[in-house]
Amino acid sequence: MPVVRVTIVRTREAQLHKALREIRNAIDRYKDYADRNLIRVEAGSEGYPPDLDTLVKGVLIGPGSDRKVRFLRRIPVDPMTGRAEWNLQSIQDDPDSTSWGGGNVFDVHSKSQGTALDGTRYADW
């Protein structure tokens, strides 16, 4: 029976890695569009999205355009918590901070307080 449990946890951990990679890639694509002046961004945002919803809803391409680009189809569910909620980190936040200062999304982490099979915390991934 323990082998089955370990297999289930490994599957969920692989899903968590995939979800984090998907969100982080979307953040990076948004930043790339902002750096190339393809989308309008707010001053002081450093070119990062204001929140995860912006990645899903999309932003207008270029001035005077009605064409939108979306970076995510949906916010992935965190397999460790079962919710599409993530701890967010802005570029202005202290690297060790566990609370989001708001304003822009630089990185995401799981809200799970659990420990992975390798001994690391999911929230640190």
Short description:
With 125 residues, the chain is α+β, with helices and mostly antiparallel strands. The protein contains two helices and four strands.
How do the strands and helices of this protein lay out in sequence?
Blueprint: H1 2-35, H2 52-57, E1 59-60, E2 68-69, E3 87-89, E4 107-109
Antiparallel strand pairs: 1-2, 3-4
Which blocks of ≥5 consecutive residues have pLDDT under 50?
A: none
Q: Indicate the multimeric state.
A: single chain
Let me know the number of strands: 4
Which geometry do the CA atoms define?
elongated
Which secondary-structure class do the elements indicate? Answer: alpha+beta
Mean pLDDT metric: 90
Q: What percentage of amino acids are in beta strands?
A: 5-15%
Biggest sheet architecture: 2 strands, antiparallel
In N-to-C order, the SSE pattern is HHEEEE
Determine the N-to-C terminus distance.
28 Å
Strand line-up across the major sheet: 1-2
> Gyration radius, to the nearest Å?
16 Å
Fraction of helical residues: 25-40%
Number of continuous helical runs: 2
